[in-house]
């Protein structure tokens, strides 16, 4: 019976997926399983009796500091959960989750059994989650600040300039000599141009149509302004049912279209752009297509702001959507965005850290 139990335990030791490290009372390694060999790169014959626990451990990771040997888990009888940096044969220190317990023996404490699990993938996912959370907060803060500045320009400076215009018209009705009237006309023209620039800037920052009328109206209006500004023939097409979407969806798709069309005007050397908005039963699609010089998508930077595509991808990812790019040198560029929606027009697969409010 004891032999059968021993054989079972040996089989278990060799076949569990978690790495197991056994050290004696002096801290020397006296046992490792195949999972430990795979995790660390060290073979059993390279560590048994040749390395100590401290040779393989680069300290416990804590919330306060990256690595610390203070209150080492090996000094305790049992520690159900901790994290250490394991020094691998390749020279890399990897974060692993662990638990440990002392094996009792007659006359005192015996060997320490340490069970380790590779934690690097979980940490990578946590870093990505944290990065997306920061991105989401930045996007929300930007939109709120855009909205505030847009409102201040329209209600503050815009109204003040309009009042000046009215005052100038009143003065213009007075009996003025030729020089004064000419100077007044110049001031009126300058004030009118400034008022138009303030209005344009206010709309660019946060178009009221996006909040009041929805995505379709905002994109249609933007297409007209874009054509006037850049002199590029711009066609706006809309398909499917016209409806309002969640505010986060409308804002993200508007900004993506705005960024993509601005990029096309700057870099594509195109004379025409087509912007399409299509409502689907289970989502919404936006497509921006130009007929310019195109580019090789393989040469885009994965990180950074390469042509603004990184920011566009982040916005789409936060909504659980997809962004695809079809482009080739000399054949133009097509950016296609799809966001799955629920029955209320909100993102169906919204990223858990995204704020839909």
From TrEMBL:
[4Fe-4S] cluster binds at residues 54, 57, 69, 72. NCBIfam families: sensory_box. One of its GO terms (cellular component) is cytoplasm. Residues 5-56 form the PAS domain. Its cofactor is [4Fe-4S] cluster. It is found in: Cytoplasm. Member of the two-component regulatory system NreB/NreC involved in the control of dissimilatory nitrate/nitrite reduction in response to oxygen. NreB functions as a direct oxygen sensor histidine kinase which is autophosphorylated, in the absence of oxygen, probably at the conserved histidine residue, and transfers its phosphate group probably to a conserved aspartate residue of NreC. NreB/NreC activates the expression of the nitrate (narGHJI) and nitrite (nir) reductase operons, as well as the putative nitrate transporter gene narT. SMART domains: HATPase_c, PAS. Its EC number is 2.7.13.3. InterPro entries: HATPase_C_sf, HATPase_dom, His_kinase_dom, PAS, PAS-like_dom_sf, PAS_fold, Sensor_HK_TwoCompSys, Sig_transdc_His_kin-like_C. The keyword Transmembrane does not apply. Its main location: cytoplasm. It comes from the Bacteria. The modification Phosphohistidine is found at residue 154. It holds the Pfam family HATPase_c. Binds 1 [4Fe-4S] cluster. PROSITE patterns: HIS_KIN (PS50109), PAS (PS50112). It is an enzyme of class 2 (transferase). It catalyses: ATP + protein L-histidine = ADP + protein N-phospho-L-histidine. The lineage of its organism: Bacteria, Bacillati, Bacillota, Bacilli, Bacillales. GO terms for molecular function: 4 iron, 4 sulfur cluster binding; ATP binding; iron ion binding; phosphorelay sensor kinase activity; protein dimerization activity. Keywords: 4Fe-4S, ATP-binding, Cytoplasm, Iron, Iron-sulfur, Kinase, Metal-binding, Nucleotide-binding, Phosphoprotein, Transferase, Two-component regulatory system. This is Sensor histidine kinase.
